[in-house]
Design a protein that fits this description.
296 residues, alpha/beta, five-stranded parallel beta sheet, globular
């Protein structure tokens, strides 16, 4: 009888320990114990801190970043570039961040007039060779400004090319920060520029025909053409936000350039398409605000 009672007590003790053990697992979430007898704990990924004062800047993109048609007709004028220019009228992003002396020695403009997104990976490779702490990106208008709406860059191709450009940069510079500016509002460009008779005459030379061609036409076909271009620009901007958002060290402007309500004062009077010095200065202000979180 003693042995039987002892076996019963032993069995009860084992069952009790098992129940307690199961209850304990439930309390800590059901994870099996580690070698120290503690439940596994997931470590939070380290938070990437954005550096608002990079020590060097490289710019990639199209004719806007080259200052095309700002100083002389049919000419680049990189000294007035919103990104890296030296002009005191513009006070480029580089000048605002590095000062005039620092901008002269530690900023580089690799943008090329006429560039489309497909050209960006090669520009990124050249920019990466400088090992900048910040790369600025502004491109995409030429993907929408084509001979016809059917010739515009497909959105999927635009995305693939931008992803390729980011991968090209990251292969060499995994920690370099990237600022991506949205594509300007081409519909607003048409509505503002068409108020000037000279501007409309210049547009007839073939400047962004998908949006600016037949500037006075208000028939259904013309309105549909412009709406198609505008939608494509918005789709491109959505891609810029998506691809940039997948990179911890990339910052998209949130549509700030697209939403900026520019007027004719911000347009080059050579072509009523590219930014004037005033327009370049406004782009620099937006970039500085987005990169630093401060007012210019």
């Amino acid at each position: 009888m003693r042995r039987t009672g002892q076996r019963v007590r032993t069995t009860v003790a084992v069952l009790t320990a098992a129940v307690v053990g199961l209850t304990g697992c439930a309390v800590v979430g059901g994870d099996p114990p580690d070698e120290a007898g503690l439940g596994r704990q997931r470590k939070a990924a380290p938070k990437v801190v954005w550096d608002a004062s990079p020590a060097s800047i490289a710019a990639v993109g199209d004719s806007i970043t080259r200052g095309f048609n700002t100083c002389l007709v049919l000419s680049d004028c990189p000294e007035v570039s919103w990104a890296t220019g030296s002009s005191p009228e513009v006070r480029s992003l580089a000048v605002r961040l590095l000062g005039p002396a620092g901008a002269a020695t530690h900023s580089w403009n690799h943008a090329v007039s006429g560039t489309r997104m497909a050209d960006l990976p090669a520009q990124m490779e050249r920019a990466a060779a400088r090992r900048p702490e910040l790369v600025t990106v502004m491109t995409g208008a030429n993907d929408a400004c084509r001979s016809s709406t059917s010739a515009m860059t497909p959105v999927d191709d635009f995305r693939a090319d931008f992803q390729d450009a980011m991968r090209t940069l990251r292969r060499t510079l995994p920690k370099t920060q990237v600022y991506v500016a949205s594509i300007p509002n081409l519909m607003r460009l048409w509505s503002e520029g068409r108020t000037n008779p000279l501007g409309k005459q210049v547009w007839k030379l073939g400047i962004c025909p998908t949006m600016l061609g037949d500037a006075d036409a208000l028939d259904a076909a013309a309105e549909q053409r412009r709406a198609t271009v505008q939608q494509r620009v918005e789709d491109y901007n959505a891609v810029l936000a998506e691809v940039c958002g997948a990179d911890d060290r990339c910052r998209y402007d949130g549509g700030a350039v697209y939403e900026y309500r520019f007027g004719t004062e911000q347009l080059s009077h050579w072509d009523w398409f590219h930014p004037s010095r005033n327009g370049q200065a406004r782009l620099a202000e937006i970039a500085y605000r987005e990169v630093t979180g401060n007012k210019p």
